[in-house]
From TrEMBL:
UniProt organism field: Selenomonas dianae
Cofactor(s) annotated in UniProt: Mg(2+)
Identification of the protein by name: Probable GTP-binding protein EngB
CDD domains for the chain: YihA_EngB (cd01876)
Record's keyword terms, sorted: Cell cycle, Cell division, GTP-binding, Magnesium, Metal-binding, Nucleotide-binding, Septation
Length: 203
């Protein structure tokens, strides 16, 4: 799978601001600062496509990108959408703004007709928190396919990785769950993720 083009489309805080064109889509969600925007930049290989910040709470809107995928051997370009969602669990947000967040994200999930799967990002160094688990359960309950990605995999060694992945599976209550380790600075996990995208986004 090759990404031949990646462009920013739109930012939305309401449904009427979503892009008009509906494309098979993958959305990225996770706690604030987990590395969603970095992963999008690594995946597309465009450093500044999504804004990254060391301060949590950077992404506050739903950001849509369009990619053109070329499948090995084929000539066709398949347009797909990539959706960067604002992070949850940012400690400094008020209860009120958390409610607004939940409504806003739920509205996206429940109305995104072409949403094929969601990547739930978890920091490989931490055991999933209550909010991560709730997010995971919510997606499963709503029959939205989930790929769990363990981000910042470059920050720990090989053995610690294995231990952490097992702890994550346990915390999410699914012992056979596939969890893809990802290291954005090294693009590690990139080709595996592209394969999953091909499977879900290009029929
Ligand atoms: P919000 O938009 O606030 O929800 O955050 P986000 O999930 O988009 O995180 P972002 O990509 O902005 O990354 C947060 C911080 O983690 C930045 O300082 C990144 O450089 C760093 N980071 C992200 N991914 C990785 C990774 O795979 N490895 C390492 N070492 N650092 C990473
Ligand atoms: Mg972000």
């Amino acid at each position: 799978v090759v990404i031949t083009k990646a462009t920013y489309l739109a930012s939305a805080v309401r449904r009427d601001q979503y892009p008009e064109e509906c494309r098979p889509a993958v959305a990225f969600i996770g706690r604030s600062n987990v590395g969603k925007s970095s992963l999008i930049n690594s995946l597309t290989r465009i450093r500044q496509l999504a804004r990254v910040s060391s301060k949590p709470g950077k992404t506050q809107t739903i950001n849509f990108y369009e990619l053109l995928l070329k499948i090995d051997g084929g000539e066709a370009r398949h347009p797909v959408h990539l959706v960067d969602l604002p992070g949850y669990g940012y400690a400094k947000t008020s209860r009120e703004s958390r409610k607004v967040w939940a409504k806003f994200i739920e509205e996206y999930f429940l109305h995104a007709e072409e949403l094929r799967f969601v990547c739930l990002l978890l920091d490989i160094r931490h055991t999933p928190m209550e909010s991560d688990r709730r997010m995971f359960d919510w997606l499963v309950e709503h029959d939205i396919p989930v790929l769990v990605i363990a981000t910042k995999a470059d920050k720990i060694g090989r053995n610690a990785r294995r231990t952490q992945i097992a702890a994550m599976q346990k915390a999410l209550g699914v012992s056979e769950l596939t969890i893809l380790p990802y290291a954005s600075p090294k693009n590690e996990g990139r080709s595996e993720l592209l394969d999953v995208m091909k499977e879900y986004l290009v029929e």
